[in-house]
């Protein structure tokens, strides 16, 4: 029976992934309905905390975007990227990584990818090199960000065992090691543009050759008056969250009792509640001090992307948690001995599931509780956290497609066999390198 139920889960994920957008969420609900009404399975817990964190963080980031803050950040990034054009293969991924850490979402990279492609092309560096590892680096930034939904899910699952700073202390340097390993493998990947027959053929077109070296500056349009103010407020909110995660004594502590939505059983305020409170308060301050209309926030692209993420995570994680709850004994019996003997093998399961879910937060919420149940040490679970970045394997994630479209030379591609694409090698190297480094740092810093 478990295999039939698992087949339904996989079918829902695969069909939902092909539908894109909210497809994962609605197909997850279809599978959940089958579990409930056909198999009479007890429903698991929906990921309310993760959904609310996504709403809070995305709403605040969208407010910053509506106030012009994202435009300001893009200009800062552009100055950094254009300052050392010959080092774009290194600078590109580092910029996308740290910008994602700051914003808590990889969607910020849509504005950076065309700059990376343009700088590389004008320097006659094969754009595939910086673009491929920059996309992977942005995804890794999610598992190193203090305000991402994935990190908040980890804190919630490991409540009382792991604090925010412990995750950041391991994952930030580990992901950096993985990114540098990815940079190394793409540094000379593919033919140089001057020797690439596809590029040379395109250069025979005078119009293409002329447009190739035209610089498109992002500072043509003046910034909104509140752009810098919104970035300062957002940055202060991120800093406050890190401080609260590092020094829990900064927030009130209440009498121990039954756990509630915002308070743990020991009387401490849950980190998820802190993130939601601080982020939405920051959004309110932005609206007040930058005089941004709330209607503009709802129209922001980040807000739309966040709404889709909430629906997707709602359906697919609720479906997955129901499957896990009903089959806990069978899964523990099949995987328990292997995972206890070699904890790193659990990273493979995280990676494979993230390939299908296209979400670090959904993967974390769906599978990390199983790691706790199997008795994997908290430090090892944190070390394996970067393994949730398998969303590059199947080239359907928006950032991958955007990178391909921004490369006018055609060097960034999806191969004939779907998985032989530009992002596969740097992605596998970067994620595996990050996990390996994660185990090292977890045992050094724990």
TrEMBL record:
<keyword id="KW-0472">Membrane</keyword>
<feature type="transmembrane region" description="Helical">
    <location>
        <begin position="6"/>
        <end position="38"/>
    </location>
</feature>
<feature type="transmembrane region" description="Helical">
    <location>
        <begin position="166"/>
        <end position="187"/>
    </location>
</feature>
<feature type="transmembrane region" description="Helical">
    <location>
        <begin position="302"/>
        <end position="321"/>
    </location>
</feature>
<protein>
    <submittedName>
        <fullName>C4-dicarboxylate ABC transporter</fullName>
    </submittedName>
</protein>
<keyword id="KW-0812">Transmembrane</keyword>
<feature type="transmembrane region" description="Helical">
    <location>
        <begin position="231"/>
        <end position="251"/>
    </location>
</feature>
<keyword id="KW-0813">Transport</keyword>
<comment type="similarity">
    <text>Belongs to the DcuA/DcuB transporter (TC 2.A.13.1) family.</text>
</comment>
<dbReference type="Pfam" id="PF03605">
    <property type="entry name" value="DcuA_DcuB"/>
</dbReference>
<keyword id="KW-0997">Cell inner membrane</keyword>
<feature type="transmembrane region" description="Helical">
    <location>
        <begin position="271"/>
        <end position="290"/>
    </location>
</feature>
<feature type="transmembrane region" description="Helical">
    <location>
        <begin position="50"/>
        <end position="70"/>
    </location>
</feature>
<dbReference type="InterPro" id="IPR004668">
    <property type="entry name" value="Anaer_Dcu_memb_transpt"/>
</dbReference>
<feature type="transmembrane region" description="Helical">
    <location>
        <begin position="423"/>
        <end position="445"/>
    </location>
</feature>
<feature type="transmembrane region" description="Helical">
    <location>
        <begin position="133"/>
        <end position="160"/>
    </location>
</feature>
<keyword id="KW-1133">Transmembrane helix</keyword>
<keyword id="KW-1003">Cell membrane</keyword>
<feature type="transmembrane region" description="Helical">
    <location>
        <begin position="341"/>
        <end position="359"/>
    </location>
</feature>
<feature type="transmembrane region" description="Helical">
    <location>
        <begin position="90"/>
        <end position="113"/>
    </location>
</feature>
<feature type="transmembrane region" description="Helical">
    <location>
        <begin position="366"/>
        <end position="387"/>
    </location>
</feature>
């Amino acid at each position: 029976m478990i295999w039939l139920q698992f087949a339904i889960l996989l079918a829902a994920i695969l069909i939902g992934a092909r539908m894109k957008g909210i497809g994962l969420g609605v197909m997850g609900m279809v599978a959940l309905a089958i579990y409930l009404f056909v198999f009479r399975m007890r429903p698991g817990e929906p990921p309310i905390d993760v959904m609310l964190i996504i709403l809070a963080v995305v709403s605040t980031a969208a407010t910053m975007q509506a106030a012009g803050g994202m435009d300001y950040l893009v200009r800062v990034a552009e100055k950094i990227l254009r300052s050392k054009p010959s080092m774009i293969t290194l600078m590109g991924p580092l910029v996308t990584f740290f910008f994602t850490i700051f914003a808590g979402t990889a969607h910020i990279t849509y504005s950076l990818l065309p700059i990376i492609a343009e700088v590389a092309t004008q320097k006659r560096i094969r754009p595939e090199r910086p673009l491929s590892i920059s996309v992977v680096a942005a995804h890794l930034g999610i598992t190193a960000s203090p305000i991402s939904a994935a990190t908040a899910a980890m804190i919630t699952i490991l409540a009382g065992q792991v604090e925010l700073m412990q995750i950041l202390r391991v994952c930030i340097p580990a992901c950096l090691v993985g990114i540098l390993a990815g940079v190394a493998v793409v540094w000379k990947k593919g033919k140089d543009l001057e020797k690439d027959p596809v590029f040379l053929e395109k250069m025979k077109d005078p119009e293409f050759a002329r447009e190739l070296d035209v610089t498109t500056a992002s500072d043509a349009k003046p910034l909104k008056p509140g752009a810098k103010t919104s970035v300062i407020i957002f940055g202060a909110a991120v800093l406050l969250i890190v401080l609260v995660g590092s020094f829990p004594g900064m927030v009130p502590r209440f009498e121990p009792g039954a756990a509630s939505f915002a308070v743990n059983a020991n009387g401490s305020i849950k980190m998820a509640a802190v993130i939601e409170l601080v982020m939405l308060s920051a959004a309110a301050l932005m609206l007040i001090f930058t005089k941004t209309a709330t209607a503009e926030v709802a129209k922001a692209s980040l807000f739309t992307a966040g709404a889709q993420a909430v629906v997707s995570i709602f359906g697919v994680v609720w479906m997955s948690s129901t499957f896990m709850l009903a089959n806990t004994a069978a899964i523990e019996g099949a995987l328990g001995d292997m995972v206890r003997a070699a904890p790193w093998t659990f990273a493979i399961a995280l990676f494979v599931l993230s390939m299908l879910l296209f979400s670090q937060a959904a993967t974390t919420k769906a599978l990390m509780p199983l790691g706790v149940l199997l008795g994997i040490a908290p430090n090892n679970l944190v070390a394996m956290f970067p393994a949730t970045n398998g969303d590059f394997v199947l080239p359907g994630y928006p950032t991958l497609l955007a990178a391909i479209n921004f490369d006018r030379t055609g060097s960034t591609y999806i191969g004939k066999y779907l998985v032989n694409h530009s992002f596969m090698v740097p992605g596998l190297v970067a994620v595996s390198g990050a996990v390996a480094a994660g185990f090292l740092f977890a045992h050094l810093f724990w």
